[in-house]
Amino acid sequence: MGRIYDATWGRGFAALYDRGLKAPEEGGLREMRREALAAASGRTIDLGAGTGANVGLFPPAVTELVLAEPDRHMIKRLRSKIGAVGMDVEAVEASAEDLPFEGSSFDTAVFTLVLCTVPDPAAALAETARVLRPGGKMLFVEHVRAEEQGLARWQDRLEKPWRFLADGCHCNRDTVATIEASPLSLEQVEHGRVPKAPPLVRPLARGGAVLPG
Ligand SMILES: C[S@@+](CC[C@H](N)C(=O)[O-])C[C@H]1O[C@@H](n2cnc3c(N)ncnc32)[C@H](O)[C@@H]1O
Question: Domains of the chain, with CATH numbers?
Answer without folding.
Answer: 10-210 (3.40.50.150)
